[in-house]
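Collaborator request, handled under Task 6.
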Amino acid sequence: MRFLGLVLLVFLSFNLVSQEIEFKISIVEDSIKIGDSITLISTLKYPENIEIVQPDSSYDFGSFDFIGKKIFPSIKKTNSIYDSTFYFLRTFEIDSIQKIKLNSIILNRNDSLNISSNEEYINLVYQVEDMTSITKENTVLRTIKSIFNSEKVFTYFLVISFLLLSLYLVFRKRIKKYLGVRGLKKQTKKFNENFSSLLKNYESNNQINDLESLLLLWKRFMEKLTDKPYLSSTTSEISPLLNKKNLITTLQEIDKNLYSNKKEVISSNKLYKLNLEANNTSKREIKKIQNGK
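Structure tokens returned to the collaborator:
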């Protein structure tokens, strides 16, 4: 009775584990000819605290012969492991319906347990429909053009799509950071080029149009970086956003040149401080992206 109770306890524990496991297989093709290959997709979902061994080349695939397999990296999500394997098989059996089911092994410290997938079916297409027909003799051999293998292309498409999806799931945070930093650096470089060009024009001609374009360029870029309304704000409204007296003084001098009759040439050093502030703000935003903020 003690032995029977121990067996019952082990069975119940295995049953509870198996309820958390999803083991499914599916065949890509709808039908098969004798000697042709098929692609069998095996997917497993199981808790991260157990280990499962999937079939390999030594496994008995029944009426199918093993050709090869492709194993994809495991994906961990919410305390579960997701495994995917592509098996490439072929059959030389003549049964009209071919069946297959896979068994995997759950490893335990003292014992192991088999877990089975669902059973999949595939229809066999006979190449010779009428075995009693009389064949022609002395027929002329003709060269057959190569046929586009849609099944292989579809398999490659599935493999590549799955690889890209796996890479995205694993490295999506790094990719997002890389693209964000790269985009911001590109915008900053373009801003510096335009700023230098307008500043050079203003130094040469002292035209109000160049000064106005320089101010608009700076406001647009600062608004993109900080998501604050620089473009639609006056100098007095920008003051609490910057909190830097020397920059506010420069902005006030630009306003006098743009909106009053008193025109005074503003030195390049003062205008360049706007460029320096924009670049420092850009560096701070880049650090935020790199730190995941």
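The cover message to the collaborator said: "The chain has two domains: 19-126, 173-290. Helices lie at 2-19, 150-205, 208-226, 235-242, 245-259, 268-290. Please let us know whether this matches your experimental observations."
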